[in-house]
Design goal:
Layout (H helix, E strand, L loop, with lengths): L7 H7 L6 E6 L3 E12 L5 H12 L1 E8 L18 H9 L2 E8 L6 E4 L3 H13 L4 E2 L24 E6 H5 L17 H29 L1
Parallel strand pairs: 2-3, 2-4, 4-7, 5-6
Antiparallel strand pairs: 1-3, 5-7
Amino acid sequence: MRKKYADYAELNAGELEGRDYDIRVLLGSHRTLVALAPHGGAIEAGTSELVEELHRSCHFSAYDFHAKKRTGNRRLHIRSTCFDEPRALSLAAEALFTVTLHGYRGEERKTYIGGLDTSTADLIGAELAASGFSVDFEPPSAIEGKYKGNICNKNRRKQGVQLEISSAQRRAFFANEDLSSANRGNRLSSFYEYAGAIGRALRRAETTVCVTEMQMSE
């Protein structure tokens, strides 16, 4: 298999948008809140569906890089620290809060929570835990989201949240624990509870920042 692409320009030169992948930008009424799936579709299955749900039910703006090759989709994975697709950068740059949704291989139902926005990460972790999901605030260094050039941290506040969801947890979102593209429309209640927890946390974070800014301007 060919090595993974170093950046979007290299990927775009080697793959065809519309055939090998799609890019969806969904603008919501909450333009300051953005959810991104930079490795969506057949790369980290289930993440596209989550950002779509955050747009649908919570009115966030959303971005989905949706890989759809018959085989070899892993090579369309651009590292989060190098993810520079222009539409993703533009959407993130307008936002106050960003959350990126990723998947990792793991047989324990768990979500690692990272990124530079630790206060919002705490809110998301608390909401997920209250909804019965297992969370871990100490991700491995490769997926901790602490590098300032990570797409999750490229919003107006220069800090965001990165969620890494295990394959076991993502399978549990869908009927028969089947992550195939044909089955990902068959979503269980846990899928909606997970998205709802993220939505509540980010709205709380947004409210807190707005109140603080108003108090500082008085």
